[in-house]
Amino acid sequence: MLGETANIRTNNKDYFQILILPDEMPYYNNRGIIIKWEKLTAHNIDKYIALSKDNTNRFFHTPVKTLLLIIKFPNCDHNKITTKTKYKQYYLNQIPDSPIQTSANINSVFGNTIILNDYEVFIEKITHYIKSI
């Protein structure tokens, strides 16, 4: 996404990004079988922390503002959810009954370009930015 962001921004266009990640992710092999589960940690998002501290007036690979939403899905039984298809079916069936919750597992310090788990603040920040142009 860095290259795409730079292409957009070097054409004198402001760019905002929303990135949504589950707080626990399966990894699949080529046949769609889950080979491991991994919880999202501060270490996994180090690159976003680094990007959030870049000067957006100087570095065009960084969006003006990014909303990083880390979603906590309802727990699933890893012994039963063993394939991409079962994972998808399980969560598609859960969605109507489950409110979306953000995860509190990440509490890293971001720079001023990333807003963590707060859509309202993100909208407020980009609104102020656009009005200031």
What does this structure look like?
- The protein is of the alpha/beta class.
- The protein has helices at residues 2-10, 46-52, 84-94, 119-131; strands at residues 16-22, 24-28, 34-39, 65-72, 101-102, 114-116.
- The chain has one domain.
- The chain has four helices and six strands.
- Strands 1, 4, 5 and 6 form a four-stranded mixed sheet that branches.
- The chain is elongated and about 50 Å long.
- The two termini are 25 Å apart.
Topology:
Layout: H1 2-10, E1 16-22, E2 24-28, E3 34-39, H2 46-52, E4 65-72, H3 84-94, E5 101-102, E6 114-116, H4 119-131
Parallel strand pairs: 1-4, 4-6
Antiparallel strand pairs: 2-3, 4-5
Give the overall shape.
elongated
**Amount of helix:** 25-40%
Low-confidence stretches: none
Tell me what portion of residues adopts beta-strand conformation: 15-25%
Distance between the termini: 25 Å
Seen as an oligomer or otherwise, the chain set is single chain
Q: C-alpha Rg, in Å?
A: 17 Å
Structural class: alpha/beta
Main sheet properties: 4 strands, mixed
Q: How many individual domains?
A: 1
Tally of DSSP β-strands = 6
- List SSEs in N-to-C order: HEEEHEHEEH
Per DSSP, the total helix count is 4
Average pLDDT metric:
86
